[in-house]
């Protein structure tokens, strides 16, 4: 449960900081990690 929350929070921070191309890279990294 904690992992899901941190994952969502991480994506939210990414969207706020840089809404654009760089969002795809961390998402793919996290999905590979899971």
Helix and strand layout, with pairings?
Layout: H1 2-17, H2 24-33
Keywords: Signal
Which key features would you list for this structure?
single chain; 34 residues; mainly alpha; 76% helix
Briefly say what this structure is.
This protein is mainly alpha-helical and 34 residues long.
Q: How would you explain this protein's 3D organization?
A:
- The protein contains two helices and no strands.
- Helix content is 76%, strand content 0%.
- It is mostly helical and 34 residues long.
Q: What portion of the residues fall into strands of 2 or more residues?
A: under 5%
How many domains make up the coordinates? 1
The N- to C-terminal Cα distance equals 14 Å
Categorize the overall geometry.
flat
Indicate the low-confidence ranges by residue numbers: none
Mean pLDDT value: 71
> Structural class of the helices, strands and pairings?
mainly alpha
* Rg estimate, integer Å: 10 Å
Output the helix-strand order: HH
User: What is the helix tally?
Assistant: 2
Helicity, as a percent range: over 70%
The major pleated sheet works out as: none
Signal peptide: 1-23
Keywords: Signal
């Amino acid at each position: 449960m904690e992992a899901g929350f941190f994952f969502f929070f991480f994506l939210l921070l990414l969207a706020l900081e840089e809404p654009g191309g760089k969002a795809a890279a961390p998402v793919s990294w996290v999905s590979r990690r899971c």
